[in-house]
């Protein structure tokens, strides 16, 4: 079984995923609505909106698209677990830039480094370091 988060954006998918690739690395693939085969275009959707984006990290995958009816992200957060506390701090700072820190990075009973933020694209993130990795 494979389980991959699929995020929706209201027109900022390419910008968000380009930023995520800058922060996290990985291989990025983006397909716009303009690139759909003839006869498959969706009426009323801007051709430069993203039909599908995928950011691959080995076997892990984060996917997304632009949704013309997008009404904000609710009830979900992307949990990113890292092994290096310094890398977790770097990633957290980069994701929080232009967004909002909802829980500053701190030691918790389950992690030596944990924090939560919502990035400038409206996506909530939980940054975590496995115990014993510090």
Topology (elements, then pairings):
Blueprint: E1 6-9, H1 13-24, E2 27-32, E3 50-57, E4 60-66, E5 78-82, H2 85-96, E6 100-106, E7 114-118, E8 124-129
Parallel strand pairs: 1-4, 5-8
Antiparallel strand pairs: 2-3, 3-4, 6-7, 7-8
Written description of the protein model:
This protein is an alpha/beta fold and 134 residues long. The strands form 2 sheets. The chain has a 4-stranded mixed sheet with strand order 1-4-3-2, covered by helices on one side. Strands 5-8-7-6 form a 4-stranded mixed sheet, covered by helices on one side. Strand 6 and strand 7 form a beta hairpin. The radius of gyration is 16 Å and the shape is elongated. The mean pLDDT is 93.
- Main sheet: strands, sense, barrel: 4 strands, mixed
Order of helices and strands: EHEEEEHEEE
Strand fraction: 35-45%
Cα(first) to Cα(last) distance is 30 Å
* Secondary-structure-derived class: alpha/beta
List segments where confidence is low: pLDDT < 50 over at least 5 consecutive residues.
none
- Percent helix range: 10-25%
If helices are DSSP runs of H or I spanning 4 or more residues, what is the number of helices? 2
Rg on CA atoms, Å: 16 Å
- Output the strand order for the largest sheet: 1-4-3-2
Mean pLDDT: 93
Strand tally is 8
What overall geometry do the principal axes of the alpha carbons give? elongated
């Amino acid at each position: 079984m494979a389980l991959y988060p699929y995020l929706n954006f209201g027109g900022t998918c390419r910008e968000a995923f380009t930023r995520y690739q800058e922060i996290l690395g990985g291989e990025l693939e983006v397909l716009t609505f303009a690139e759909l085969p003839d006869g498959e275009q969706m009426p009323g959707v801007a051709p430069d909106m993203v039909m599908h984006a995928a950011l691959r990290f080995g076997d892990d995958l984060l996917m997304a698209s632009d949704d013309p009816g997008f009404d904000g992200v609710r009830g979900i957060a992307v949990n990113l677990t890292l092994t290096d506390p310094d890398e977790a701090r770097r990633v957290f700072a980069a994701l929080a830039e232009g967004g909002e820190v909802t829980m500053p990075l701190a030691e918790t009973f389950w992690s030596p480094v944990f924090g939560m933020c919502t990035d400038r694209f409206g996506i909530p993130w939980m940054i975590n370091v496995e115990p014993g990795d510090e």
